Structures are given as structure tokens and as C-alpha cells.
Amino acid sequence: MMADRSNQRLNEAIENMIRMWDGTIHGQTIRNMYENGSDYESICEIAGIEYEDYEEE
């Protein structure tokens, strides 16, 4: 099952984080989680993004 990737604002925040940390273990970890279907909450926890700030009603 593919993870829900419908939150455009959060996708942009995660993709920016991946670009910022490109070439590092941290960036690769986030990229792997994002591309391999980890849920948003898990990615945000590792990336240091406040998931609640991007949660959609």
C-alpha cells in the first residue's frame, strides 16, 4: 500500500528538507522514508517538522 501523499504543503516541506540535507545521512534517511511509503508522522518526527502545523482538516 502506498502512503497518502495528498498533503501538498507537507510534501513541499519534506522535499525542501531532502534538498537541504542532500548528500548527508540525514537527507538520505528522509528521502528513503519518503520514497518508500513511510507515513507523514514518522517522516516529520525524523525530519524535525511539526506535523501538526501541516495537518489538514
Question: Any overview of this molecule?
Answer:
This protein has 57 residues and is mostly helical. Helix content is 56%, strand content 0%. The longest helix is centred in the N-terminal third of the chain and has 13 residues, at 8-20. The radius of gyration is 11 Å and the shape is globular. The model has no long low-confidence stretch (mean pLDDT 93).
Topology overview:
Layout: H1 8-20, H2 25-35, H3 40-47
Question: Could you provide a short overview of the structure?
Answer:
The chain is mainly α.
Features:
57 residues; mainly alpha; 3 helices
Largest beta-sheet characterization:
none
In terms of DSSP E residues, the strand content is: under 5%
In DSSP terms, counting alpha (H) and pi (I) runs of 4 or more, how many helices? Answer: 3
The rounded distance between the terminal residues' Cα atoms is 23 Å
Poorly predicted runs are none
User: Count of DSSP E strands?
Assistant: 0
Mean pLDDT: 93
Q: Please compute the radius of gyration using only Cα atoms.
A: 11 Å
Helix and strand element order? HHH
Overall outline: globular
Tell me the structural class: mainly alpha
Portion in helices: 55-70%
